[in-house]
Sequence to fold (414 residues):
Amino acid sequence: MKKIIILGGGISGLCSAYYLVKEGYDVTVIDRNDITTGASFINAGYITPSHFISLAAPGMISKGIRWMFDSSSPFYVKPRLDFDFFKWVLRFKQSATLDKVEKAIPVLKDINLKSQGLYEEILSSLDFQFHYERSGLLMAYCSVKSEEEELKIAERAQKEGLEARHLTREQLRKIQPDFSEKILGAIHYECDSHTTPSRFMLSMKNWLKENGVHFELNHEINKINFLKNKIVSVESKNATFELDELVLATGSWTSSLVKSLGLNIPVQGGKGYSMDVYRSTGITIPAVLVEAKVAVTPMDGFVRFAGTMEFSGNNSIIRSNRVEAIANSVKNYYRNIELTGEEKEAAHSGLRPVSPDGLPYIGKSSKYENLTIATGHSMMGWSLGPITGKLVSQLIAKKNPSINLDPFKPERFK
Fold:
């Protein structure tokens, strides 16, 4: 039986293991931690066909420069001397054109829809239970400028066949009465759904264990050994793991890990924060607070408030002013909801692996015949977990992929 090693125990890694087990492979998941923390656990839980505009959109560079010295801003870049980051920014700028964004729209819409279908397929399979709701997503705004921008996106969504409905302030208050008077209205993307990430990850991990997947935790892989055009093993400080196929689902650590292989796969860690509230809030429908860039999700037993995109290197530092910015946004957008000191103290952070063009890297390496890459999902990692895993299994099993993988080539930034 062919032995597969997956580096990375986030959503992409576990979903890859799930579909590879279904194909009959011997699978081992290796992770630098114990698979209880990180972006796959603290994210907003959105499954979002509506998010078809890539992060590398026109105007993001100017916003980043404008916000660079405001560490509480929604999009924050910590000034630092980092040559890899400078190269990443240049590629981001080159990708942030109307033409490239336009070409990415149907690609992102289709891959999100397929992944949503796979979430529902996993649920109906009864392999394991997890929280899943299809109540849509509200894009709630306070300004006329934001309204104009959101209406344009909604119009495009409708042309793409997605369910998007404009709600006036009065219509919005009927379905979500806890919004404040500052809210002018919202776009309701009825096509979207959501889950509780930690519940899904725990259930998936237990199912994988029960079905023969080996877990090697707290192993930081520092060397990948190869012979000619084939990977033969990976090494941590205390162990060597031989393999037939290697899957890299290593998130924000991918770029540094593949340098020794002579590969250039630019990824930067985009830190996000979240806080959970285990008391009654009245919030029943997920929402993005547009101007604040804060995500609000009613999960299984609690409500999660998440947000920010922070480029400050691969670290888990919690910046209190960024936590306060999220908390203040919640207070402004909702009536009678204010996060307590204890809730803010319990904030978590996680690193999203962000590619320069906002598209994930999914595919086989052209240099190593037994290497498959699955990373760089930016803010859509949770949404795209199942389809990524399915595609990885199809590639290794030499089956036709469910979608055209040309836009996701891992070595597109040579």
Summary: The chain has one domain: 3-408.
